[in-house]
Design a protein that fits this description.
By secondary structure, the protein is α/β, with parallel strands linked by helices. Helices cover 32% and strands 25% of the residues. It has two domains: 117 residues, 3-Layer(aba) Sandwich (Rossmann fold), CATH 3.40.50.720; 196 residues, Dihydrodipicolinate Reductase, domain 2, CATH 3.30.360.10.
């Protein structure tokens, strides 16, 4: 089946569909974007004239040519739309968060198995350059035994958007489901399932119906991971702060891919995802037995890795890079974080 082209439909062409999915599906040779569901506009066909814009989700469900459906709709619709796609014989790429609840995530996993289809959860931040660099540092034990890990996803949006669905009081809304899904997934990739969780979740913006700040602590044997995000951070602090018993790594700034994609750049030119040297993280540790103190070059990021894995899984039966069970565990930690916040106590991880 080498050389097969996977026919794709995208549901929704907001920020997610327009910025994080379509450019990669456009430039990668194994995919063809056949249809995009847009309710009232035709923005996708203005950028990609070969795309057919449709208004009805059911149109793609009943199209026998569609192999994969990319769900970029509001979080509250993920479960119902993914279920319909799976039952129609389509593979599914779902924007994070996977589903509003871990129970629904389990149902989707079972549905995919019974239908013989695959679910891919779009945890693209595994392909951020800074996170790839951290995996390299920790994998090499260059900081020794980790004692504290802190990751931030801070923004300055002091006024909530009453017309945006992410700020509506719907299932899986709020910053913990949005940005928290990234930070939790990264922590689980580095350290596995925590023993317990403690969370402080708040609504800092006046009138906000959903949470816009969180401080989640994941406790492991001998150390903890601190995950924070908020919308009231005018002056950003470090993105990552990692301390071990022989060194530290501190990183400011965010992977450049998102900004490039928002500017309309296509991810197929040499040097894509490379970070400027001024943004490299500060490193003090031991490499190959020698102490090092200075800047650590950031590995290039590339979200293409996610889509390349989708292709290899569907065509060559490769191992999934983002397993749906891992995405379900992220949702479970979010549920336990809300429980911890409500009870004002530490919660052991459990299903």
């Amino acid at each position: 089946m080498a050389g097969k082209i996977i026919q794709v439909a995208i549901v929704g062409f907001g920020l997610s569909g327009r910025v994080f999915h379509a450019p990669f599906l456009h430039v990668l040779p194994g995919f063809n974007i056949r249809k995009v569901v847009e309710r009232s506009t035709s923005k996708s066909s203005e950028i990609y004239p070969y795309i057919q814009v449709v208004r009805d989700f059911e149109n793609i469900i009943h199209d026998p040519e569609i192999d994969v459906v990319v769900i970029c709709s509001p979080n509250a619709l993920h479960f119902s739309q993914a279920t319909k796609c799976l039952k129609a014989g389509k593979h599914v790429i779902i924007e994070k968060p996977f589903a509003p609840t871990s129970a629904e995530a389990n149902e989707l996993i079972k549905s995919a198995e019974s239908c013989g289809r695959k679910i891919f959860v779009y945890q693209n931040r595994r392909w951020d350059g800074d996170f790839k660099t951290i995996k390299h540092i920790l994998g090499g034990k260059y900081l020794g035994d980790i004692k504290e890990y802190e990751a931030h996803f801070d923004r300055f949006r002091p006024v909530y958007n009453p017309t945006g669905w992410k700020d509506e009081n719907l299932a899986a809304s709020g910053v913990l489901y949005d940005l928290g899904a990234h930070l939790i997934d990264q922590a689980l990739q580095l350290f596995g399932i925590p023993k317990s969780i403690f969370a402080d979740i708040r609504k800092q913006r006046e009138g906000s119906p959903v949470d816009d700040y969180f401080d989640v602590h994941l406790f492991y044997d001998g150390f903890k991971a601190i995950l924070k995000a908020g919308m009231m951070v005018k002056i950003p602090g470090p993105r990552y702060i990692i301390h071990g018993n022989i060194g530290s790594y501190v990183k400011y700034g965010i992977d450049p891919q998102e900004a490039a994609l928002k500017n309309g750049e296509m991810p197929d030119y040499p040097g894509w995802g490379r970070e400027m040297e001024i943004d490299w993280g500060s490193f003090a540790g031991v490499m190959d037995g020698a102490p090092i103190n200075g800047k650590m070059a950031t590995l290039p990021g590339n979200y293409s890795g996610f889509f390349e894995n989708v292709y290899q899984v569907l065509i060559n039966d490769a191992e999934m890079a983002v397993k749906p069970e891992e995405a379900r565990d992220v949702i479970r930690i979010i549920e336990l974080a809300y429980m911890s916040n409500e009870m004002k106590t530490m919660i052991e991880f459990r299903y």
